[in-house]
Amino acid sequence: MSLPADPTRFTLADARDAVKAKRISSTELTKTFIKAIADARPLNAFITETPEHALKMAEASDALIAKGDARPLEGLPLAIKDLFCTKGVRTTAGSRILSNFIPPYESTVTQNLWDAGAVMLGKVNMDEFAMGSSNETSYFKPVINPWRAKNSNQALVPGGSSGGSAAATSAFLCLGATATDTGGSIRQPAAVTGTVGIKPTYGRCSRWGTVAFASSLDQAGPITRTVRDAAIMLRHMASVDPKDSTSVDVPVPDYEATLEGGVKGMRIGIPKEYRIDGAPPEIEALWQKGAEWLKAAGAELVDISLPHTKYALPVYYIVAPAEASSNLARYDGVRYGHRAAGVKDIVDLYEKSRAEGFGAEVRRRILIGTYVLSAGYYDAFYARAQKLRTLILRDFTEAFKKCDAILTPATPCAAFAMGEKTADPVTMYLNDVFTVTANLAGLPGISVPAGLTADGLPLGLQVIGKAFDEATVLKVGRSMEQAANFTATPSTWWRV
Amino acid sequence: MSVDKDTVRRIAKLARLALEEERVEPMMNELNQIFAWVEQLGEVNVDGVPPMTSVVEQRLKMRADTVTAGGDADAVTANAPMSEDHFFVVPKVVE
Q1: In the prediction, which pLDDT does A297 show?
Q2: B11 and A242 in contact by Cβ < 8 A?
Q3: Residue A161 catalytic?
Q4: Residue at A364 is within a domain
Q5: Does A258 touch chain B (CB under 8 A)?
Q6: In this predicted model, what pLDDT tens digit does every residue of A218-229 receive, in sequence order?
Q7: What CA–CA distance (Å, rounded) separates A158 from A197?
Q8: What is the domain-level CATH number for residue A216?
């Protein structure tokens, strides 16, 4: 197989094989990415670049390769979402309140990657505390989508909250990136940047050492350029972890080994409730195309119903802020993080440190969460939302009696312009309309690039699977990837 | 359901978030816009439906009650905005 001349264009699988075969050293590979990152600063994808750290890790990898002791991801440069605590390397969660925080410990997910031999290029930008769908809530300024519409110089958003992970992967600044998904934060940015993103089943990846947003929904996963790369990376992020009581005792399979299994004989559910009024016709057309691809590959299409779909987003905007208001109570200006100056007493210290440290979207969600959990309102809001969550999960349980996986659009639209949706929070929230159900039900979901809009912007399709059946999700994703033959890449306008 | 200005001030107090007086009304409007949208949840009959407590069918794991980490006061206080001799320093709390 011939490899691209520019090593940043390698897939993660290509790079793995080339490094192992000593066709390129990890140091050489790492240096080309460090240069690419420096050349791409206009995208603002990174909050903290760690080139020295990366080169040290690459050297260590090269030494192991020379000895014949290479591990599965030996010497492969990755970007890490700035929500994963990295020992000795600043971890901000995209927030002012953690802008000076240097963790004394390493998250389980990143430790797993380093134990497999991967190299850290730096920490990538994100919406503050992962709250957002456009990366515009970051204290460290928005990320710019590497993609632009045809004949336009307008800056577009990369989606969110893992906007830095998606932009860095799409712009060839890393082989892949870690990301997290609470309501769509892996799959939505992947879809609007032409990359692959998988959110595994809740409990598959440990949450230990990942800055918490909404603990019953948060899951880590990779953003990569191919489905195979996602299969490889997910396997080495996932683990059973005694440090996370919600980490589930199910062995992590070799997803890559079963990737090419095909969809012959599989039943693919098409949920009628995912046809939404006002969605651009391109979204509906692509969805139909995706269904035809799977049918042509031997799958059977089955009409299914998920009747409570329309309630998923409002349920999410009760459950997630409630959990966030509780999780974010720890930021008090005392033990770590930003502390306000010139305060008169301890309550003043808390109130001012938090008001200065949190941005507008985070403050709004803390207030929503505090309200829905407060005395007299708990039953009307929170308890009702959790009951609806049960109904949403039941919808899926019923549907999966008739099908093996579900095909849906990934997003209701392609990448939009900066500032286009910031005025109205509900309009922004609607970006997650197709992805949020999988979080509420804890199910695995993948977004795979499937086509371009008339304006030349990428769109994705989503596959949702049964709990702990990432293998099927990846297999269907792979089949779709082959049929879509998505080869478009953004022009490198940022290299001035 | 909607909130008034006093409620906004009260929940900001509960959340320990300073909210300037001129921000109270805009925040009230933003919250009411969101509450108006979530109001549709009221149309579903949830009688007899148990609230979700866990998305995966798993009992919460127990672990042995043993010390697994600790004893490193330097690391614990390393990120403190203000500390002295491994204590966190705060404004005077008790007169």
Answers
A1: 98
A2: no
A3: yes
A4: no
A5: no
A6: 999 999 999 999
A7: 13
A8: 3.90.1300.10
A397's CB contacts (< 8 A; 6+ apart) are: none
The sign one gets for the Cα dihedral A421, A422, A426, A431 is: positive
User: Is A493 a domain residue?
Assistant: no
CB contact under 8 A, A425 and B1: no
Place of tokens 């305060």: A343
Residues of B in contact with A216 (CB under 8 A): 54-55
DSSP assignment letter at B69: S
Mark the ranges of chain A whose per-residue pLDDT is less than 70. Answer: 1
Strand partners, A197: A223, A447
The whole-angstrom separation of Cα A102 and Cα A23 is 36
Q: Give Cβ neighbours of residue A108 (< 8 Å, ≥ 6 apart).
A: A205, A206, A208, A209, A239, A241, A243, A244
Rounded to an integer, what distance in angstroms lies between the CA atom of residue A314 and that of residue A320? Answer: 10
Q: Could you say which of A333, A351, A442 has the minimum Cβ distance to residue B55?
A: A442
| Nearest residue to A141 (alpha-carbon basis) of A432, A411, A359 | A359
Helical spans, DSSP H, in chain B: 5-14, 21-38, 73-77
pTM of full prediction above 0.90: yes
Domain-embedded: residue A324: no
A478 close to A227: Cβ distance less than 8 angstroms: yes
Establish whether A138 is a catalytic residue: no
The domain of A419 spans: 9-267+403-484
Token digits of residue B8: 């906004």
Q: Tell me whether residue A145 is in a domain.
A: yes
pLDDT in tens, B30-62: 999 999 999 999 999 999 999 998 888 777 788
Q: For chain A, what is the domain count? A: 1
A-interface mutation test, from B17, B22, B61, B95, most A Cβ less than 10 A away? B17
What are the beta bridge partners of residue A445? A199, A464
Q: How many residues are recorded in chain B?
A: 95
Q: Predicted ipTM?
A: 0.96
Contacts of A98 in chain B (CB under 8 A): none
DSSP conformation letters of A56-87: HHHHHHHHHHHHT---TTTT-EEEEETTB-BT
pLDDT for A1: 54
Question: In chain B, what are the domains?
Answer: 5-42 (1.10.20)
Suggest the residue from A108, A387, A468 to mutate for an interface test with chain B (most B CBs closer than 10 A): A387
Two structure tokens written together for B70: 């600790």
CA A407 – CA A403 distance, rounded (Å): 10
